[in-house]
Every structure is written in C-alpha cells, then in structure tokens.
Amino acid sequence: MKRIGILTSGGDSQGMNAAVRAIARSAMHAGLEAYGVNYGYKGLVEGDVFKMDSLNDLDGIINRGGTILRSARFPEFAEEETQLKAIEQLKKLGIDALVVIGGDGSYHGAMKLTKHGFNSIGVPGTIDNDIPGTDFTIGFDTAVGVATEALDRIIDTARSHQRIFVVEVMGRGAGDIALWSGISAGADAIVIPEREFDAKEIAAKLTDNKKRGKDYGIVVVAEGVMSAQELKDQIDQYGDFDSRAVTLAHVQRGGMPTAKDRVLASRFGDYAVQLLLEGKGGLAVGIRDNQLVAKDIIDTLENHKHKTDVSLADLNDRIRF
C-alpha cells in the first residue's frame, strides 16, 4: 500500500477535520501518501482529488468545524455505474484504499465500494449519533453541548416570562441529542422517536408544575418525531399555556469541536490507518466501552441498527417528576 484517500460526505459534523488530520498524518508517518477528495462522492467520481501536505493542508485544522474537504449530496452514487466510475478514478490515481468519514449515507457508499472489491473503511462522523457499531460518533458531543447551551438560554427567558418553550433539536431518526441535551438542561419532557408519547400527559405535567409553583417549562423534541410547532399545537389543546416553538436547526452542526470530539476523531483516524497497514479493510470503525473496535461494514449496515439508550428517558421522568 502506498496511497490512502480521505473523503468526507453527507452532513458536516464538528471533528471531521480532526479525523482528516489524523488519517493523513498517521499515513504519512507510516511512509504513505495521503490524498484528499473534495466534495464527497461527487468529487471522487469527477476526480477532484489532491495530494495532502502535512503543514499547508493539515496544520491548524483540528479545532475547526465543518470539513476542509467540503461535502456534497450525490444521490447518483446509488447507481452501480457511478460506483464503478469512482473506482476507476481511484485506480487511475493509484489510491489503494479509501477512508470515508460520515454518517449513514456515507457508510452505505463505502459499503458499495467494498462490495465491488475496493478497500474502504468507514469512520463515523455525524452529530446524530445514529451509526450502528459505535457508542459515539464524531460531532455528537459538540452538538449536545451546543443544544444544551441553547436550552439553558431559553430557560432564562421561559422563567422570566412564565412561558412554555417546545424546542426541536436535530438527530434525524434518532433521539440521542434530544435525550442528552434535555437531561442536561433539566427539561420537563423529552419526546423521541424511540418511545411513545402523549401530548395530553405532557400538558397535564406542565399544568401540575404550575400548580406547584413552577410557572414555566421546557419540552425537547427530536426532529424525527415532529416539528416543535406541531408538538406545541398538540400540547396547547390540553392546557392554558403561553407557549412558543423554537427550532435550533443547523447551529448544532457548526463551531469548534469539543476536546472529546477532537480526541475521538484522532483515535478513529489513526485506528483506520493502522487497520489498513495490517491489510484489513471493508470495516466500520467505532468505540465500545471506550475501546476502539472495527466490524465488517456490510454486516454492520445490513444486520444491525443503532440503539438509542431509552433508559435515559426513564431517568429524566424520575428526576423531573
């Protein structure tokens, strides 16, 4: 092996640059060449690839949000003909293996390349924390911190104006961000896709809080359930509330990554290179009980699903009764 390609795809997440940096520098440390692919799978098919320099391309990016390789949606990559064009480009450039940093869609792209016999490794980079085979993904910790800070600020206004705020956070089909930020901010209720909810029960709880002297409240809803406005409208049907709906949206994806995300990304990136040096590929990198793991990417995606820790919702019910 002489050359490793690095690609970021799908939604950006804080810590992607730290992963790019770790992959490239670990490869260079082993005597390999590192090549960056611009604009995800679209750039790969179009041959938008460049040789990375340790100082000019990688210095000072560990603390930057987003991705220096940029990203682009490219649904055409689902077609076999397009996948084969990508492999042609990789072979033409003499790239022996590709490390893909991204979420579910990015992983499926890496899996397709693997099925065609091209050595690919997936590194989990998404704020949603919804990738099977790993406890945490790159960007999740930072996104939770951003959401928690926003909730803390909203609570100040809620308390000042005796209002109920329904706040929508990201997460795609997973409730992890909602759970972690909701518990951290002391939310009165957390609504996630993995657990049924009753708007009438939430309204009753908020009404009971008011009778007990708490005349404000925060309800956190994951985007995979419904919008903040929709949930607000449902809750309003069962109580006399001065309520507002807030959507945090993409603010959760930007900004400097936390130290935890920088270290996690660095560990993932270096581990991916070490696996390739050992002659291993077609893998999905992850972390379980703080130990790095690597599982077959095809088996991971086709036979496993991410499991949100729903017990955290039960915890919030007990400590916010």
Supply the key terms.
42% helix; 7-stranded mixed β-sheet; 18% strand; single chain; 2 domains; Rossmann fold; 4-stranded parallel β-sheet; alpha/beta; 321 residues
Word description of this protein:
- The chain has helices spanning 16-29, 40-46, 80-92, 104-115, 140-161, 176-185, 199-211, 228-236, 259-277, 297-303, 311-319, and strands at 3-8, 33-37, 49-51, 97-102, 120-124, 164-169, 189-191, 217-222, 243-247, 283-288, 291-296.
- It is built from 11 helices and 11 strands.
- Helix 2 (40-46) crosses helix 3 (80-92) and helix 6 packs parallel to helix 11.
- The strands form 2 sheets. Strands 3-2-1-4-5-10-11 form a 7-stranded mixed sheet, with helices on both faces.
- It folds into 2 domains: 3-139 and 257-303, 3-Layer(aba) Sandwich (Rossmann fold), CATH 3.40.50.450; 141-254, 3-Layer(aba) Sandwich (Rossmann fold).
- The termini are far apart.
- The longest helix is centred in the middle third of the chain and has 22 residues, at 140-161.
- With 321 residues, the protein is of the alpha/beta class.
- Helix 7 links the parallel strand 7 (189-191) and strand 8.
- ATP binds at residues 11, 73-74, 103-106.
- Catalyzes the phosphorylation of D-fructose 6-phosphate to fructose 1,6-bisphosphate by ATP, the first committing step of glycolysis.
- Its cofactor is Mg(2+).
- Substrate binds at residues 126-128, 163, 170-172, 223, 244, 250-253.
- It catalyses: beta-D-fructose 6-phosphate + ATP = beta-D-fructose 1,6-bisphosphate + ADP + H(+).
